[in-house]
Amino acid sequence: MSTTDFLGRAIETxxxxxxxxxxxxxxxxxxxYYDALNLFMLALKWERNPKSKELIxxxxxxxxxxxxxxxxxxxxxSNKKKPKAISANGKESGSGGKGKDDDDLDADSKKxxxxxxxxxxxxxxxxxxxxxxxxxxxxxxxKEAVILPIKxxxxxxxxxxxxxxxLLYGPPGTGKSYLAKAVATEANSxxxxxxxxxxxxxxxxxxxxxxxxxxxxxxxNKPSIIFIDELDAxxxxxxxxxSEASRRIKTEMLVQMDGVGNDSTGVLVLxxxxxxxxxxxxxxxxFQRRIHIALxxxxxxxxxxxxxxxxxxxxxxxxxxxxxxxxxxxxxxxxITIAVNDALMQPIRKIQMxxxxxxxxxxxxxxxxxxxxxxxxxxKKLTPCSPGDNSAIEMTWVDVKS
Length: 402
Fold this sequence. Notes:
Layout: H1 3-22, H2 26-46, H3 50-80, H4 107-116, H5 136-151, E1 165-169, H6 176-186, E2 190-194, H7 196-199, H8 206-220, E3 224-228, H9 244-258, E4 267-273, H10 281-286, E5 289-292, H11 298-309, H12 318-327, H13 333-344, H14 346-353, E6 356-367, E7 374-384, E8 393-394
Parallel strand pairs: 1-4, 1-5, 2-3, 3-4
Antiparallel strand pairs: 6-7, 6-8
Helix pairs in contact: 1-2, 2-3, 4-8, 8-9, 11-12, 11-13
GO molecular function, one term: ATP hydrolysis activity
EC number: 3.6.4.6
Pfam families: AAA, MIT, Vps4_C
């Protein structure tokens, strides 16, 4: 196990926390310090170098003291403020969108909308269609169902109506959730992203009211898209061993998606599952369009390797990428990303394990201060080497000046 992964992430997290601290965003800063401390503890657990351990321990203590001060400061401030209402699943109540005013809602509806407010994506994920390698059929089907009805509503008249439900199904890691992020970015509509934890409550009868309120908010903010990830967790097959709460959730889903008196025009339900055969039959029927997200072909795998490597400097040629795409048969998009991330960490592991370094000269592109023109310059850099090298200097990565 490499400590560099944890230590690097801890350093990045603590940098962001310090920025928030400087900007006096103390709540975000406290959360950042807390997350960084967890990563520092993991790095400390796997670190073998005594000097590195001591350095990590000192920094962790320093940031822990700052986090404690922020915690005390935040608790003092919260005592002075009026407490906020807490929803059944532990989230603070907030505004549910641009629909009804708070004055028109009773306390129960406000609480339910507060619980669902976190499901509305206020910032787009910034993932475009071109960022999704392969899956051309799925992308075209989603454009037909999502983009066209919003951009050209006059095309959908008479009996020609856009799909109300689309089900994405296929093996894990093939890009179903990633496609949903692309839809959220490309579609000019309100996007609700929910999972079973957002809709299941410990209170009797509240789960189905959350489902009803979700669809009510979607209708108020239409055109809108409701994305339900891992749909099988909410809408599995009905049977004798099923709980009453689960049965009521499914019933409410059926009513809201295609029930009498519910106008679902302008609302699209997008579901994703790895096991479509375990979905309730009536729920499955509500998803008129079903798109199979299969494992990528060789050309798609090649593109996925290129996207995963990105702008990281490397010596890979187009032929290398073609070969990687060919030999990675059976890999999902997630498998390829994990494999590339592991390969990208190899130089870091080499630096961490090295006990000797030597100086070498490398060509570096620099901008001229006067003219701004780029030119090549020779710079001395340290690189890991064998202990038997004539130029070897005994040192570890901790001794290298940043």
